[in-house]
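Translate structure to sequence.
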């Protein structure tokens, strides 16, 4: 809300639009009873929030995590609204989650929980209403269970109800790598505009899940030196550049990269302080805060995660001259290729991976150019410029549609 107010005041947005944006359109809280492997019944709490649907159906991921909360899901749904508007997709924003620890659950328990949660939220989701996708601790398999459960509810195969599915049931080529690839495209454009050579630059990536691991591989493929990576258990640093293939081989048989023997070990809470040219926080919210923002050594930050920088940290980084490419632009590659997947499902006509990557690059580069140029023109930071672009589009939609009744 602080980000919204700051941008709204700067662009003199109509008070009606600001008021609309402060309140989610729809909040659904559900009880999710699950039969556990030991025969006991455990009841989880789940949410699905549709923030705004003025520009089209709601779109947003589902996360499974012990720290999921209503406020967190509200914020994430708001960011999805902004993200879709910034890259000009015909969607509004949504988000969902279940309070659970999936690392302590069996595959059978996860499937039963996913199917029950899907059944409970099926009253508001659908290919023309609200299209979930993977997020933290959810993946292609979880999306397959959701798609199957919804399809059983309506009585026919409905691949367009979710994105991020396996290829075999209507998923899209390039979806798995899309967020990481979008982060790379944004960083490459930033390098071109700011006049530094990405192939001679050092990159550190916090988070080694889907976004972080794919981003690391793509940066390395294009000659950038990946000097640091981290997951939830710890980080690695090598100023000469990590051998990512070797790290990934090591990770295949272990839960974490933290024990990898051929690099310097870095505690999780110190990782954002390692020396690098480009820092990519691609883990959870609030990785960079007032407590560590003055210790960041990177020249540029490209936000691969949602909300990794607190408002207080933002102000500190800006004062220090560290340029931040905001999440609602930098990590929009995932929702962009999710949009491609949805379009392919609705048409029952699928594209090649080269075509998908080319379309992704076109949209991401176009959005980056619009935001970067506005930031220079208005003499504001890129987060403010991205909000101005997104709110401008949403404001027009709200104004044109009017209010019912």
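Result:
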């Amino acid at each position: 809300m602080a980000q919204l107010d700051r941008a709204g005041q700067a662009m003199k947005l109509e008070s009606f639009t600001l008021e609309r944006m402060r309140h989610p359109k729809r909040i659904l809280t559900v009880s999710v009873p699950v039969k556990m492997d030991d025969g006991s019944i455990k009841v989880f709490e789940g949410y699905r929030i549709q923030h705004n649907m003025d520009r089209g159906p709601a779109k947003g991921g589902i996360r499974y995590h012990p720290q999921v909360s209503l406020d967190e899901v509200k914020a994430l749904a708001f960011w999805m609204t902004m993200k879709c508007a910034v890259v000009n997709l015909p969607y509004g924003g949504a988000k969902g989650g279940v309070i659970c620890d999936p690392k302590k659950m069996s595959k059978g328990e996860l499937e039963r929980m996913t199917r029950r949660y899907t059944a409970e939220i099926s009253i508001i989701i659908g290919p023309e209403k609200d299209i979930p996708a993977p997020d933290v601790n959810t993946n292609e398999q979880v999306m397959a269970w959701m798609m199957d459960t919804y399809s059983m509810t309506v009585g026919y195969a409905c691949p367009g109800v979710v994105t991020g599915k396996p290829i075999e049931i209507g998923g899209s080529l390039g979806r798995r790598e899309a967020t990481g690839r979008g982060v790379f495209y944004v960083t490459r454009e930033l390098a071109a505009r700011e006049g530094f050579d990405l192939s001679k630059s050092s990159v550190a990536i916090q988070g080694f899940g889907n976004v972080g691991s794919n981003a690391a591989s793509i940066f390395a493929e294009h000659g950038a030196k990946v000097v640091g990576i981290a997951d939830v258990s710890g980080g690695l640093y090598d100023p000469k550049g990590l051998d990512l293939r070797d790290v990934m081989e090591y990770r295949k048989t272990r839960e974490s990269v933290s024990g990898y023997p051929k690099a310097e070990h870095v505690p999780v809470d110190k990782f954002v302080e390692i020396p690098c040219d480009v820092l990519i926080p691609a883990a959870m919210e609030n990785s960079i805060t007032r407590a560590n923002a003055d210790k960041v050594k990177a020249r540029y930050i490209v936000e691969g995660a949602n909300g990794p920088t607190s408002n207080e940290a933002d102000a500190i980084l800006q004062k220090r001259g560290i340029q931040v490419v905001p999440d609602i632009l930098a990590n929009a590659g995932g929702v962009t290729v999710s949009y491609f997947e949805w379009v392919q499902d609705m048409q029952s006509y699928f594209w090649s991976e080269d075509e998908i990557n080319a379309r992704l690059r076109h949209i991401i580069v176009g959005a980056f150019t619009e935001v970067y140029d506005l930031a220079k023109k208005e003499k504001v930071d890129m987060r403010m410029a991205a909000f101005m672009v997104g709110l401008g589009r949403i404001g027009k939609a709200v104004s044109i549609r009017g209010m019912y009744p």
